[in-house]
Amino acid sequence: MRLGLVCVESLQPDDKPRNTPQNARVNSVCRKMSSTVSPSLRPACPDDLDALCRLELESFEGDRFNRRQLTHLLTRAHATTWVVENKSGRLLGYGTLLFRRNSRSARLYSFCVHPEARGKGIGRRIAERLEQESRERALQKLILEVRADNRRAIGLYRRLGFLPRRWLDDYYSDGCAAWQMDKVLEPEDAVGLVVAG
Q: What would the pLDDT profile of 43-63 be if each residue is shown by its tens digit?
């Protein structure tokens, strides 16, 4: 079962996922996957839409996703989204990977950690889970863009093995440049092997 995705026909004009039996099952499974240990990591559910909108609003001053974009990522895009929530169910962060058909790469398209939760390992947990998802799909590379002035995020990505590959002038709506970074994913069987010579 693919979690976090619902069929396009289940969308209402106001972009709220309907309470269909399929969505109810997905939401139920997501809630069960959320452990009692705080914070917990789980696949995003259609019920997370309002919380994701709040998280974007509280985390970014500009270049944030609106409700329609988040609905698309949760319901229509060829994507997967994972969230971290605390014991009371408040979302502390999320990350979304986009997949292209017939491509061996995934794009870390959206990544957000609430300002009060930064520096606590939440971003690392989300990024590591998204990398695991990519490996499970036998992908060979992860690609992302990051604001050139976001030193904390750049540092995290570098510690996770991403390398800056291309400078993108005037990438964000406020004129800020970006780094395009990528990470080559070695097959899991090859990780840790020493080649005898």
A: 998 999 999 999 999 998 888
